[in-house]
Amino acid sequence: MTDANPTSTDRDAQTDTERGAHSETTSSGVFSRLPDWVGRYRIPIGLVLFVLLLRPVVALPFLLGFESVATTILIIVLFVAAFNLLFGYTGLLSFGHAMFFGFGMYGAAIAMSGHGPAPELGFLVGAVVGVALAAFVGYTLGRLTVGKGEIYFAFLTLAAAEAVYFIANRDPFGITGGSNGISGGAQPGWIESFRGELTVTLIPWPDALVDVFGWLDDWYLLVGLVFLLAMGALWQVVRSPFGRSLIAIRENENLARAMGIDTARYKVWAFTISGAFSALAGALMAINNHGASQEWLSVFTSGDTVLMAVLGGVHYFFGAVAGVFVWEFTADYLTDFAVLDLGFIAVDISRELSHWQFLLGAVFVVIVLVSPNDGIWGYVRAYAARGWARIEEVLR
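The structure corresponding to this sequence follows.
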């Protein structure tokens, strides 16, 4: 006879699953004094605040001093969050996720520019085709690979991505541009560019209204709206029964299977959804970068995505936000930082800071050794909870 009582291992796994499932959706002590709806919807509220504050913060003179990087950060956050649905919530590591980003980027760029023999179809058509292709490839590749084991899955996705990179480099039918990518004419008619600044002309706002609210025709505003809708959709996926099942699979696949969850089917659909949202981010980047570049298809892009996800914290929805912000901010800040003025002496450190990846790599190693699942966002949450507890003690 089989013992009906769960073993200690199963109980521990179930406890981990429940803890992981509620880590982003239940109110912590920091929100205990606030209305219930604030704690319940703190992720959407945080995302809105992030969009509103990101650009003015990075534009401060003592930080980056320019606003354009804020749009890039939003797009990459969406990409990393889509990847983390597969990695952080399902437990599957993909070394080829740049492939899906490239489908959206090249699909939009080819449609906008009519590159090669392809007709000029417009951004929306190209974006839809790119997202649909990413979903199809994700579903098909998932059906073929998720049952092979986690290690084989990682390397099979890498092999598939390298095949896509090779095909793009070969410039089939003259539509991908080869190693040069696509640049000429890769911009929709409702986007205008002036000195690198993009404006949206979809809605003919009155000049008086634009003078008062200068951001109405801003490209950043449109990207922010798409970002909030896409991130909100991912958040709903994570907090749904489907997302809970993914967490159960991540924590203990055998136990999840014993509970009646078709683990292979859930993994395939997680891969499909992750690929589709990654392609959406790529389509936005095609407008932001005025075309498609082959470097976004490379294995280095996939590797940076993994690093940013782990850096931020793979078990937290906001981990993607923290990881991408730290990575991109450090890259732009340190590469522009040339002279360290100590008052009594000025030291030129531009040569050393050109290797900023080494500094972030050291931080990454420390995070992996100390707490690979929590990342920067986990530490921020932990210290915020401790600080709030100290304040509550003082107020008592």
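The mean pLDDT is 82.
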